[in-house]
Amino acid sequence: MEEKILGLLALATGTDEVLREPGLPIWEEGVLDSFGLLEFLSDLEEQLGITLYPTQLSHSQLETPRALAAAVMDAARRQGIVK
To answer: Would you say residue 34 lies in a domain?
Structure first.
C-alpha cells in the first residue's frame, strides 16, 4: 500500500524523486505545493478509497514523503481500509 501511496505522490509532484528519497523535504523544497497536495488527496480517494483532507494534516506530516505516507496509512487504518 505504501508503494501505491508514494506512486500517487510522484504523479502529483511530477517527480519520482519522492520514491528515491523518502526523507526529501518536499514542502520546504517546493516539490509539493498546495495544488499538488489537493491533487494527491483527490487521487488517494479516487484510486485507493482513502479520504483525507488538508486540514487533517499537520506541518510535520507534510515534511517528507515518508511522513506523508505514514499519515495516509494511519488514515487508511482508521477508515478500515488496511489493518
So the answer is: yes
